[in-house]
Amino acid sequence: MAYRSHVERFWQNAKFVADPATIHSFAKVGNEDKKVIITEDLIQRVLDFLDEAGDHTGYPKRMVKGCFYMMGYTGYVNETNFSKANISRPYKFFKHSVIHIHAVGHRKGGYDVAVDYVMCMIVTLTLYLPYNFSKLNFKQMKTNLVQKRF
Fold this sequence. Notes:
By secondary structure, this protein is α+β, with helices and mostly antiparallel strands. The protein has seven helices and five strands. A three-stranded antiparallel beta sheet has the order 1-2-3. Helix 2 packs across helix 7.
């Protein structure tokens, strides 16, 4: 079980190392500080993602917009972020069941806005396309660290 204090301690001590791309921190195990090294491969293994290193983390905007239209999207398509309220009911349920924005997103924001990478995840799962969830999660952890979101 991870307590809030564990998460805060991890982020307070975390440092990004560029070569090789890793995040280093410490975790207290008993009375001892243990070094923790997070990599994209570790995320893939621990979270049991079936992605591969060469899988995409994004798709062309035209393809994403087209897929949203096929899902019955009724909003303005040239907005940067799509409103999830404008997705047809079956896909809205799918979105809430599988990809809740605050469960996979690293940014704070409204509950009704789907940012680009969330839109790509919805399209990926709808069209059964490969997607590198491990890389995305590592990238978001790096962003949290660099921008001091914690």
